[in-house]
Q: What sequence folds into this?
Protein backbone atom coordinates (compact mmCIF):
# COMPACT_ATOMS: atom_id res chain seq x y z
CA UNK A 1 0.00 0.00 0.00
CA UNK A 2 1.44 3.36 -0.96
CA UNK A 3 1.62 6.11 1.65
CA UNK A 4 -0.69 9.09 1.20
CA UNK A 5 1.54 12.20 1.42
CA UNK A 6 -1.43 14.32 2.54
CA UNK A 7 -2.63 11.86 5.16
CA UNK A 8 0.57 11.00 7.03
CA UNK A 9 0.13 10.62 10.79
CA UNK A 10 2.80 8.20 12.07
CA UNK A 11 6.59 7.99 11.83
CA UNK A 12 8.50 4.91 12.98
CA UNK A 13 12.05 5.67 14.05
CA UNK A 14 15.16 3.63 13.31
CA UNK A 15 14.87 1.68 16.57
CA UNK A 16 11.94 -0.22 15.03
CA UNK A 17 12.67 -0.04 11.31
CA UNK A 18 11.23 -3.47 10.45
CA UNK A 19 8.03 -2.58 12.24
CA UNK A 20 7.92 0.73 10.38
CA UNK A 21 8.17 -1.01 7.03
CA UNK A 22 5.41 -3.46 7.99
CA UNK A 23 3.12 -0.66 9.18
CA UNK A 24 3.82 1.43 6.08
CA UNK A 25 2.92 -1.55 3.93
CA UNK A 26 -0.37 -2.00 5.81
CA UNK A 27 -1.33 1.65 6.41
CA UNK A 28 -1.36 4.71 4.14
CA UNK A 29 -0.69 7.07 7.06
CA UNK A 30 2.64 5.64 8.24
CA UNK A 31 6.24 6.25 7.14
CA UNK A 32 9.59 5.35 8.66
CA UNK A 33 13.16 6.60 8.77
CA UNK A 34 14.59 6.43 5.27
CA UNK A 35 11.16 6.56 3.60
CA UNK A 36 11.14 8.65 0.39
CA UNK A 37 8.36 10.89 1.77
CA UNK A 38 10.64 12.14 4.56
CA UNK A 39 13.92 12.95 2.80
CA UNK A 40 15.12 14.98 5.79
CA UNK A 41 15.32 11.73 7.78
CA UNK A 42 17.52 9.21 5.98
CA UNK A 43 18.84 6.11 7.72
CA UNK A 44 21.40 7.08 10.34
CA UNK A 45 19.90 10.51 11.03
CA UNK A 46 20.74 11.76 14.50
CA UNK A 47 17.89 12.24 16.98
CA UNK A 48 18.74 15.94 17.12
CA UNK A 49 17.94 16.17 13.40
CA UNK A 50 14.88 13.97 12.96
CA UNK A 51 13.00 15.06 16.11
CA UNK A 52 12.35 18.64 14.93
CA UNK A 53 11.67 17.47 11.35
CA UNK A 54 9.12 14.87 12.42
CA UNK A 55 7.47 17.18 14.97
CA UNK A 56 7.22 19.97 12.38
CA UNK A 57 5.19 17.58 10.23
CA UNK A 58 2.99 16.83 13.27
CA UNK A 59 3.74 13.12 12.98
CA UNK A 60 3.36 10.78 15.93
CA UNK A 61 6.46 8.70 16.63
CA UNK A 62 6.43 4.96 17.22
CA UNK A 63 9.70 3.50 18.41
CA UNK A 64 11.76 1.50 20.87
CA UNK A 65 14.30 4.11 22.04
CA UNK A 66 13.46 4.92 25.65
CA UNK A 67 16.50 7.18 26.03
CA UNK A 68 14.85 9.82 23.84
CA UNK A 69 13.17 11.23 26.94
CA UNK A 70 16.14 11.00 29.30
CA UNK A 71 19.11 12.55 27.48
CA UNK A 72 19.09 16.26 28.45
CA UNK A 73 19.70 17.63 24.94
CA UNK A 74 17.15 15.31 23.35
CA UNK A 75 14.61 15.96 26.09
CA UNK A 76 14.88 19.70 25.42
CA UNK A 77 14.31 19.08 21.69
CA UNK A 78 11.45 16.71 22.52
CA UNK A 79 9.73 19.38 24.63
CA UNK A 80 10.45 22.32 22.33
CA UNK A 81 9.23 20.46 19.27
CA UNK A 82 6.10 19.13 20.99
CA UNK A 83 6.92 15.56 20.03
CA UNK A 84 4.31 12.84 20.55
CA UNK A 85 5.61 9.32 21.11
CA UNK A 86 4.31 5.79 21.55
CA UNK A 87 7.20 3.75 22.91
CA UNK A 88 6.98 -0.02 22.57
CA UNK A 89 7.95 -0.91 26.10
CA UNK A 90 9.48 -4.03 27.51
CA UNK A 91 12.63 -5.26 29.15
CA UNK A 92 13.30 -7.97 26.62
CA UNK A 93 13.77 -7.55 22.90
CA UNK A 94 10.88 -8.83 20.82
CA UNK A 95 10.49 -9.78 17.19
CA UNK A 96 8.95 -7.40 14.69
CA UNK A 97 5.91 -9.68 14.64
CA UNK A 98 5.51 -9.40 18.43
CA UNK A 99 5.82 -5.60 18.28
CA UNK A 100 3.27 -5.49 15.46
CA UNK A 101 0.74 -7.67 17.26
CA UNK A 102 1.11 -5.56 20.42
CA UNK A 103 0.48 -2.34 18.51
CA UNK A 104 -2.48 -3.73 16.61
CA UNK A 105 -4.00 -4.99 19.87
CA UNK A 106 -3.74 -1.50 21.41
CA UNK A 107 -4.28 0.64 18.30
CA UNK A 108 -7.80 1.75 19.29
CA UNK A 109 -6.50 2.91 22.69
CA UNK A 110 -3.68 4.77 20.94
CA UNK A 111 -6.22 6.54 18.72
CA UNK A 112 -8.25 7.53 21.78
CA UNK A 113 -5.17 9.02 23.43
CA UNK A 114 -4.24 10.92 20.29
CA UNK A 115 -7.72 12.43 20.17
CA UNK A 116 -7.76 13.21 23.89
CA UNK A 117 -4.22 14.59 24.16
CA UNK A 118 -3.80 16.37 20.86
CA UNK A 119 -0.64 18.47 20.74
CA UNK A 120 2.51 17.32 22.49
CA UNK A 121 4.81 16.83 24.07
CA UNK A 122 3.70 13.50 25.46
CA UNK A 123 5.14 10.01 25.82
CA UNK A 124 3.20 6.75 26.22
CA UNK A 125 4.55 3.29 26.84
CA UNK A 126 2.74 0.56 24.92
CA UNK A 127 2.99 -2.40 27.29
CA UNK A 128 1.60 -5.88 26.87
CA UNK A 129 -1.36 -4.87 29.04
CA UNK A 130 -2.08 -1.46 27.46
CA UNK A 131 -0.92 2.14 27.43
CA UNK A 132 0.72 4.01 30.25
CA UNK A 133 1.64 7.68 30.15
CA UNK A 134 5.23 8.32 31.15
CA UNK A 135 5.83 11.76 32.62
CA UNK A 136 8.62 13.80 31.13
CA UNK A 137 11.31 14.88 33.60
A:
Amino acid sequence: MAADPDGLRFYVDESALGLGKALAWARKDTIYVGHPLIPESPLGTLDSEWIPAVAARKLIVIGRDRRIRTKPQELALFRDAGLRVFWIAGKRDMSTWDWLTRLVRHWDAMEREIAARGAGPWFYAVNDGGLKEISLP
